[in-house]
Write a structure and sequence with these properties.
Length: 552
């Protein structure tokens, strides 16, 4: 009975004390928060006035302990005195920004329970529609409670001492079974009934902690596996160039098998070293690192704490494919310029002679024919470039349909019979009807260019054999000719844009150098494989294998 009375009085007194302390902390925290908001809004008013008078230049020379952020009407961060605006997220959906856009002013706060800090935000809308925001970190209610913990503990100790003097024996009898509880494996049969809820809670808590530890361990392993299997290299460096963290991709670029203690100028690649130095100086840096087989983009960003640079994050991204594409694009532009200039130069020359009256009457028709021929070459070149552009950009909007490759090849054979007859080239078609899902127009261009090339680069009186075969899961279109053939050294390049095996022969026949490039891109559009077999002076066979289960 004494123990129950003791517990009741003690718990009531403790509850009243906690309630009073809690109420005091809440009132004090609320008033403190209001004071902070008032101070922020006063400072914001001064900054707003300066912005209205001087614009962005006012922010450049402004010295303040608070964080200032200037946000455009669409949410883009225009200025921030702590972080780089270029890497900050869009602020259009921030609570204080939205409220300021609607009402002219706005408030919000973010509380961090782990750090016992909260960030208060105040925003005001400027006359040009942009929003100026100010923020600061303040102590949370939990931190205030910790501040008055010491006097509360003194009162509690005094209460405990007095209670102990009055009922020490009863207290010992109550505490003894509590101290005897096995925290690792608490059992209900080893204590009295009043402690059953506590023991049950301990057992449940042990199970929960075990599950949480297992979950945390699994997530840690998953994160480590993710970081280690990233193709991008990541390094976290402190202000003394010490390596705090990283992954194997980054260590490999540093020439290290394991995590090094720090970056050293004599062992580190110069691009990484220079980018790190600039980041530690407070500047975001981008650089290219070229190895024997790959090209990496180095992105170095400073890490700041309270306005001071404390380290840097180095990200190394493999951009080999992007750089190769850019190189091909530059080469393509140069080739297009050259291919367009050649016929235009001829047309200009013929036209100038005709304009100056230097062409005899009987030669006028011949010159007009030459101009017509060069114009036709230009039109063919532009058509092929447009076809390639559509295939590159994936801008084809034609719906896929079932296409009979044999019927398509038969149509192409008929279309090219007049061209083949001019050179006495015999065209044959054999095989079977095979249907695939694809875009008829693109497949027609593939077949047409294959057969057209086979005629152009054939010998007079030669043969072109078209064959359509297939199986349950694929269809095959092959075109074989008895033409000039392609040497081994040139076979890997014939699908490049504007590459010609025999430039003089190609120009004589009106080729643009883009036919096989269109074939390659058309095949890629349908997830098909292209193979080439050729022997110089004997002939060439090009085979396109289409999967039947693919829908472009």
């Amino acid at each position: 009975m004494t123990g129950k009375i003791f517990r009741g009085c003690f718990l009531v007194g403790l509850a009243v004390m906690v309630l009073c302390v809690g109420l005091f902390v809440v009132v004090m925290a609320d008033q403190y928060e209001k004071d902070v908001y008032t101070r922020l809004e006063e400072e914001l008013a001064y900054v707003r006035h300066g912005m209205e008078q001087s614009g962005r230049d006012y922010l450049t020379g402004l010295e303040t302990d608070q964080r200032l952020t200037w946000v455009a009407a669409d949410g883009t961060v225009l200025y921030d005195n702590v972080a780089d605006p270029a890497v900050m997220d869009n602020h259009a959906n921030r609570v204080e920004i939205l409220q300021a856009q609607r009402e002219g002013t706005g408030r919000s706060k973010h509380v961090s329970e782990t750090l016992l800090k909260k960030t208060l935000y105040a925003a005001v809308k400027l006359s040009d529609g942009t929003v100026l925001r100010i923020s600061c970190e303040e102590t949370t209610m939990g931190a205030l409670a910790l501040g008055i913990l010491q006097p509360v503990l003194w009162i509690l100790v005094l209460a405990l001492v007095l209670s102990g003097l009055m009922a020490s024996r009863t207290a010992r009898q109550i505490v003894r079974p509590v101290n005897g509880i096995d925290l690792e494996n608490p059992r209900l049969d080893e204590t009295y009934e009043e402690l059953f809820p506590l023991v049950s809670r301990l057992r449940e808590q042990n199970r929960t902690i075990g599950q949480q530890m297992e979950t945390l361990g699994r997530r840690q392993r998953e994160f480590a596996a993710l970081a280690e299997n990233m193709s991008e290299g990541v390094l976290l460096i402190d202000s003394h160039y010490s390596v705090l963290s990283g992954n194997q991709s980054a260590f490999a670029l540093l020439g290290q098998r394991d995590q090094p203690e720090c970056l050293r100028q004599d062992t580190c690649r110069s691009e990484i070293w220079e980018a790190t130095g600039k980041a530690l100086a407070g500047r975001h840096t981008e650089a290219l690192l070229k190895t024997e087989t790959h090209i990496f983009e180095i992105l170095a960003s400073p890490v700041t704490v309270s306005g001071q640079v404390t380290g840097a994050v180095i990200l190394m991204v493999d951009v080999t494919e992007r750089e190769e594409r850019e190189s091909l694009r530059r080469e393509f532009s140069a080739n297009v310029s050259h291919e367009l200039k050649t016929p235009l130069t001829s047309i200009s020359g013929f036209a100038e002679l005709m304009k100056e009256g230097l062409v005899e009457e009987e030669k006028m028709r011949e010159f007009a024919g030459d101009i017509y021929k060069e114009c036709a070459q230009l039109i063919a070149l532009i058509d092929d470039i447009m076809k390639l552009s559509r295939l590159d950009e994936g801008s084809e909007e034609v719906a896929a349909e079932l296409v009979d490759l044999y019927a398509l090849a038969e149509l192409v054979e008929k279309e090219l019979q007049p061209t083949a007859a001019k050179r006495s080239v015999t065209m044959t078609l054999e095989g079977e009807h095979q249907q695939i899902c694809g875009v008829w127009r693109i497949l027609h261009e593939v077949a047409y260019n294959l057969c057209d090339n086979a005629i152009k680069y054939n010998k007079d009186g030669g043969r072109v054999a078209i064959r359509v075969t297939g199986s349950e899961d694929k269809a095959v279109l092959s075109v074989a000719d008895t033409g000039i053939g392609i040497s081994k050294g040139q076979q890997s390049r014939v699908f490049e844009r504007f590459y010609r095996v025999d430039k003089s022969h190609s120009r004589q026949m009106g080729g643009t150098g883009l036919g096989l490039s269109i074939v390659k891109h058309g095949a890629q559009y349908h997830n098909a494989q292209v193979s080439l077999e050729s022997e110089l002076g004997t002939g060439t066979t090009i085979t396109v294998t289409f999967p039947k289960n693919h829908t472009p």
